Amino acid sequence: MELWAATTIRQPVSRVYGHWRHLENLSTFMTYIDRIRPTGERTSHWTAITPFGHRLEWDAELTDVVPDRQLGWRSVGEAELPNCGRVRFDPAPDGVSTEVRALMVFVIPGTELGGMISRYFGDTPNELLDDDLHRLKQILETGEVVLSDGAPWGKRSRKEFPQRPAQPLSAGELARGAPA
């Protein structure tokens, strides 16, 4: 499965690249990335939680590192979900902003997990990466991700699909708080 998306962020290339280069920041805007722990100068350990609650872990290495321009990576070893990707950071024509173009490729295994992942993503897998880049844009431009009432507790609310139309939370929902 190949995912691609692009956005323009009103921040200089060095800031956008720097935020992404600190891989532990990816979990703040990528929906299914739970944690990334650097293990070396170009290596890291990734943990993801699928929409079905299945935990995936793999090691990755940076492959194409061009400061303030591009980052590439690939999974190494025995990854349950082999993957690779690249993100480019280009100055936008306005001279202030950064154009971000991301590509991610996943090898969906022929297992039961692979079938579930394929069915879940359906015809619109690029929307997931597009939404991730939109959250990155919000973080870098405003300092936070704006949440709808359908997901008032951010990533912890994954079990709340589908979202309902915007409306205030009920007293019971406020009392329950974020799901554990």
Automatic annotation (TrEMBL):
Region entry Disordered, spans: 151-180
Gene3D superfamilies, alphabetized: 3.30.530.20
Coenzyme Q-binding protein COQ10 START domain mapped to chain residues: 11-129
Pfam families on file: Polyketide_cyc
SUPFAM superfamilies reported for this sequence: Bet v1-like (SSF55961)
Protein name: SRPBCC family protein
Record organism: Dactylosporangium fulvum
